[in-house]
Write a structure and sequence with these properties.
flat; binds FE2/S2 (inorganic) cluster; 61 residues
Length: 61
């Protein structure tokens, strides 16, 4: 199977939003300023994180 190298956004069943191959993805705050990120990161979609906008696993608790 060929490895996916395309920028991909997956909404998981647990509620987080996983972004992979994100080298060329711009992640911006509400004012349009860049937020430092990695090539793979998860965004919080549940509102429980203490590390917004990233998922910190709080959706499990
Ligand atoms: S989705 Fe994981 S902390 Fe919100």
């Amino acid at each position: 199977m060929e490895e996916n190298t395309q920028p991909t956004i997956q909404v998981t069943n647990s509620g987080k939003v996983v972004v992979t191959n994100a080298k060329d993805v711009n992640l911006l705050d509400g004012d349009g300023n860049p937020i430092p990120k990695r090539n793979r990161f998860s965004l919080c979609n549940c509102g429980k994180t203490s590390d917004g906008p990233f998922c910190d696993g709080s959706h499990n608790g």
